[in-house]
Amino acid sequence: MVPVSNEIEVKPKQPWKPTQKEINTNIGIFILNILVTLSLIQFTGFSGKLAFVVLFILFSLSTNFLFSLYKGGTVLAKNSLATGFAFTGISLLLMPVISILGTVIKRGTEAMYIGFFTTDMSDDGFSSALDVGGIKHAVIGSVIMVTIALLFSVPIGILTALYLTELKGRGSTLIRFLVQAMSGIPSIVAGLFIYSALITGSGRGFSGFMGALALTILMIPTVARTSEEVLKLIPSDLREAGLALGATQWRTVAMVVIPAAKSGLITAAILGVARIAGETAPLLFTTGGADAVNTNPLDGNIGSVPFYVWKALIDGSPNAIARAWAGIFLLMIIVLSLFIVARKIGSPKKVRS
Fold first, then answer.
1. Do 108 and 325 contact (CB within 8 A), yes or no?
2. How many domains does the chain have?
3. Whether residues 279 and 183 fall in one domain
4. Burial of 58 from C-beta contacts in 10 A (0-12 / 13-18 / 19+)
5. Is 209 inside any structural domain?
6. Which CATH number is 190's domain given?
7. Residue 213 belongs to what H/E stretch?
8. Which of 17, 121, 266, 314 is 20 to 30 A off residue 308, Cα-Cα?
9. CA–CA dist 330, 336 (Å, integer)
10. What is the distance in angstroms between the CA of the first residue and the CA of the last residue of the chain?
11. Nearby residues of 157 by Cβ (< 8 Å), 6 or more positions away
12. Cα–Cα distance between 52 and 46 in angstroms, integer?
């Protein structure tokens, strides 16, 4: 005889997960809401995307509330209404973002072709056909200026953060205030400062180095503030352990604190680059713009992607506007990529057991 087991297999319940029946019901209500909303628009004076969104939200909230009231009473109805408002808020937040991304992708790819990244505008105008000319000069100029700004901003920003978190001297309060104040200055102020102090004040002309200095002014506060927050997360036990072993304060900082905060400091630098990658106003006053490739940041006008977009918009022709959208699309890809990399580096590492 086969022995019969009296053990009952107990499966943990997950009440927060909807059942298949509930999922099917929600899908049916969603489809019903869409059909009713379309019917209201069809047979009333409402029209347009905005009218559809408003009517759909109002009808969805009402339908979910009444269904929950019928199914589970007042408590479930109130919970459904609160959940509906939460989803409505998230949807209203995401809708403009999705709309912007979709528009940039759709319009930005119109002017792109095989030679878009390998040619410049030295032989063509912005109103020329979209199969000639490109953005090579602007990309090279942006890379040069951002690299110079990175070389200046990262050491200054990290050293400032170390002073505020490790030394905590008498001037730390004032320095922290100045860093926060610099974070809020308009970008055009940085460009005007470099223009008046160095370009017209000393007789120097437009150049990539001047543009990099203007970008440095904007990048330092971002790097400093982010680095400060990262360094605050380092446990005090690590510092105390280094001091207990006889190391000096700065040796402890160099050998213990900075290595522990390495990924966060790299993230701070990447966020700083993302902060300045699309800045236009400072470059209008410092670089002069160029339609040909210039790899010398110390001499002559130099192009950049933001300047390329601005110049195309000023031209105003349909082909020029298409080129501007292509430049905006490129900037969006760069900034989103930087944020993704920063997120990846700054996320906590999973420890394998």
1. yes
2. 2
3. yes
4. middle
5. yes
6. 1.10.3720.10
7. helix 208-232
8. 266
9. 10
10. 44
11. 219, 220, 221, 222, 223, 224, 227, 268, 272
12. 8
